[in-house]
Write a structure and sequence with these properties.
With 762 residues, the chain is an alpha/beta fold. The protein has 25 helices and 27 strands. Strands 1, 2, 3, 4, 5, 6 and 7 form a seven-stranded mixed beta sheet that branches. The chain binds adenosine-5'-triphosphate.
């Protein structure tokens, strides 16, 4: 068939599917209403008592309700692709692929298959010809004869793209010599960027698909260039895992860790759009403090970074070394040694006594603590001992009472023997009897109190106190630190950390250590089991943070994505994934790379690559997808007026092209305020919104934002406020920060500067 005929065929098919959807949704709504009434009546009849049938009906109702909402939503675009596949020895089938599977579950007639289903893998990874895919029952072989993508616009099917027909072969592009342009992908990438990250189910690329469907049982690290889809892929992977393991994992078992609240808001649409809900999303500090069970104000790494820039060279060195140490596995080693000494000290304990009467002997407590229960965290052992002893408490109190009786019997006999029976003796005896009875009575009461007091004192639950004690290891300093830390650095750390604590603050760098202490001393806190975690911008994590998180996640099932080229916290973050693979995961970890960038035009990527090449890491330059645009412009500014007129004309241009977002990116908050002031006071047509440190989201399209907060975000157009040689020097930090900023733009980039331009752009 000719393409036009094919398009007509697909339009008719779409009409048929929509017609079916309408009638099916009507049927489902009726079912929903029926179930609603049934539940109402059952609730009335059961009068609040437990009813198994009610529970199952409620579950069914929830499924039907969700179906109605999914199917209604699917009417706009029920599917995005079609594959024609003939399984070996079977008939050829045309399969339509969508975000959700759509079908009549009574008749088993499936109209659209889920993008996460095993066979849909062929759409993402297969090429026409002989192919196979992995199904739960084994490998299925067959032949793929069509891979078709559908371009929808406002619910209307606009065009179809068949692989190998619409893909244009370009010669001599890139090192490989030839490259395919995926027209469909290109059209998708030319769209404008909004305030939220989008899902990409229709255009997931082969190498991305491989990561999405990667085995869940090992941690996977993805080093991906800026804009290569790391965040997007990681979130799609979650949707995939929840589908693939639907019987064992639900949204609550998943944790997404991201750098800040703005970023969390930016990605917040993707999962619900993929039909995933209830996933926990937090910053790493929030999560680690939740593990500790402590509410403290965190000095975030961003706040610290801002402060660092104002510090003297000498202080900066201390701050860097402090962060480096606190993020290292050496710190874990030191904590381990501290916990060992703590264990020995904690075992230096007395008998549990009521006055001079022993209830439980210290030798027994020690044996349980140091030997029998030594596989448990310290406080868990104490709790277990307490539990075990409390069962024997009544019996032991009785024994003490017997001892008291014996003691008084001896005393009475002695008195009787030594003194004749006189009024005085009788008086004395009555006194002794009273004393004995009083003691026996009190022993019952005091035994319980002494027991509780003992354990109250012994079990120290406050991790802040524990951490303070750890920092004050003065007597054992050399032994515990293994002579690996200069005393001056330790003194500095101690003083600063204790002073933060006394003001109610905790440095982000201390959160991993506190959580680690908690795990080792108290054990795993009570919380919903985490069965998979996604860590975004992982290059900014310290090895110790990754280690602690890996200890909490069941089976170390983790998706860790990052880009070393954007590691602005390099002084404490990660500079080489090999260290993480070897030291944190002891080589039990998969590693993948993504080098193709989908965000920016060729011109923008090539421009940013010049800055990347100035970094020490020697990373492979980012490869752009074939999408051309305007060259980034370096613009020297002479005056504020010049700045305003440039900004105005750029904003006009962006608006006239129906693009949405423009970010004026400044080196720091001080520069943001400067830009804001100029744009506010001097007449300006556009309202620019300045992003503040504690903002939780970005709602506006025209914003002023400091460089470090742009991490992970993207804009149609980026304007660098002032890329002069003082704002961005030639050092490693500035080259990383500038690289982050330069890779945020999709379509346009303007680099303003006053005086001399940064050496990084020369
Ligand atoms: N396969 C794809 N099809 C269409 N768009 C894609 C694809 N992969 C990524 N993108 C788009 O590329 C942009 C960058 O994606 P994302 O933010 O996930 O990349 P990243 O690697 O996390 O970037 P960075 O590290 O620079 O923050 C997004 O707009 C995303 O929608």
């Amino acid at each position: 068939m000719e393409k036009q005929e094919e398009l007509l065929y697909e339009k008719q098919h779409l009409l048929d599917v929509r017609e079916w959807l309408n009638s099916y949704v009507k049927k489902q709504i009726k079912e929903e209403e029926k179930l609603e009434t049934k539940i109402f009546n059952m609730k009335k009849a059961s009068k609040g008592s437990y009813n198994y049938e009610l529970e199952t009906t409620e579950k069914l109702y929830a499924v039907v309700k969700k179906n109605v909402s999914n199917y209604n939503e699917a009417k706009e675009q029920p599917y995005f692709a079609r594959i024609d596949f003939r399984e070996y020895r079977k008939e050829k089938e045309s399969l339509y692929i969508g975000k959700y599977s759509l079908g009549d579950w009574d008749t088993g007639d499936e109209k659209v298959i889920d993008w996460r289903s095993p066979i849909a893998d062929l759409y993402y990874s297969g090429t026409e010809g002989k192919v196979y895919y992995k199904a739960p029952g084994g490998v299925i072989d067959g032949e793929l004869s069509l891979k078709r993508k559908f371009l929808f616009n406002d619910g209307a099917l606009e065009d179809i793209f068949d692989e190998s027909i619409n893909d244009i072969i370009l010669n001599n592009v890139g090192e490989e010599g030839t490259e395919l342009i995926d027209e469909f992908l290109k059209i998708n990438l030319e769209k404008s960027s909004g305030n939220k990250l989008k899902d990409i189910v229709a255009t997931i690329q082969k190498e991305q698909n491989e990561i999405i469907r990667w085995d869940k049982n090992l941690p996977i690290i993805v080093q991906g260039a800026a804009g290569s889809g790391k965040t997007t892929v990681a979130l799609h992977r979650l949707a995939y895992l929840l589908y693939r393991y639907k019987d064992s994992i639900v949204g609550e078992n998943i944790l997404v860790l991201a750098p800040n609240s703005i970023f969390l808001d930016y990605i917040s649409d993707v999962l619900p759009n993929l039909g995933v809900d209830k996933v926990n999303q937090r910053t790493v500090e929030e999560f680690l403090l939740k593990v500790v069970g402590s509410r403290m104000n965190v000095i975030t790494k961003d706040q610290k970074l801002t402060a660092i820039q104002e510090e003297s060279e000498q202080n900066r060195k201390f701050i860097f070394n402090e962060s480096k140490l606190k993020g290292s596995l050496l710190y874990k080693e030191i904590l381990d040694r501290y916990i060992k000494t703590l264990e020995v000290n904690e075992a230096q304990i007395d008998d549990i006594k009521i006055d001079q009467w022993t209830l439980f002997q210290s030798s027994e407590i020690k044996r349980l603590f140091l030997k029998d229960l030594n596989n448990l965290p310290i406080n868990k052992r104490k709790e277990e001992i307490k539990k075990y002893f409390s069962k024997k408490l009544g019996e032991n109190i009785k024994k003490v009472i017997e001892k008291i009786e014996l003691y008084y019997e001896y005393k009475i006999n002695k008195l009787k023997k030594e003194i004749d029976d006189t009024i005085e003796r009788r008086k004395e005896l009555i006194k002794i009897y009273d004393e004995r009875d009083e003691l026996k009575k009190n022993t019952l009461k005091e035994g319980k109190v002494a027991f509780e007091d003992y354990f109250k004192q012994w079990i120290n639950k406050d991790m802040r106190d524990q951490y303070k004690d750890f920092l004050c290891i003065d007597d054992n300093f050399e032994e515990i630190t293994g002579n690996k830390i200069p005393l001056t650095l330790w003194e500095y750390i101690k003083e600063k950390t204790l002073s933060n604590f006394s003001e109610g603050y905790i440095d982000a760098d201390d959160c991993a250590a506190m959580a680690y202490l908690k795990l080792r001393i108290d054990g795993m806190p009570k919380m919903t089991e985490i069965k998979h975690v996604v860590i975004d911008e992982a290059q900014d994590y310290s090895p110790f943070q990754l280690y602690v998180i890996s200890e909490i996640v069941t089976g170390k099932s983790m998706t860790i994505v990052g880009d070393l080229g954007q590691g602005i916290y390099y002084y404490r973050g990660i500079n080489d994934w090999n260290n993480v693979i070897n030291e944190v995961f002891k080589e039990k970890c998969s590693y993948k790379t993504l080098t193709q960038s989908y965000r920016s035009t060729i011109e923008i990527i090539e421009f940013a690559n010049t800055v990347l090449s100035k970094q020490k890491l020697n990373l492979t330059p980012t490869k752009p997808v074939i999408r051309h645009g305007a060259k980034p412009e370096l613009i020297k500014l002479d005056s504020e007026q010049d700045f305003i007129s440039q900004v105005n004309s750029i904003a006009e241009k962006i608006k006239s092209e129906n693009k949405k977002s423009v970010a004026i990116v400044c080196r720091n908050f001080a520069q943001c305020k400067e830009a804001d002031k100029i744009l506010k006071t001097k007449a300006n047509q556009i309202k620019w919104k300045m992003v503040k440190e504690n903002d939780k989201s970005i709602k506006d399209d025209f914003i002023i934002i400091p460089a470090h907060l742009t991490k992970g975000l993207e804009f149609d157009c980026v304007i660098i406020y002032d890329a002069n040689s003082e704002s961005y020097t030639a050092n490693e930090f500035d080259s990383k920060l500038l690289y982050v900023v330069l890779t945020r733009a999709l379509h346009y980039e303007y680099i303003f500067y006053k005086g001399e331009v940064t050496p990084l752009l020369k």
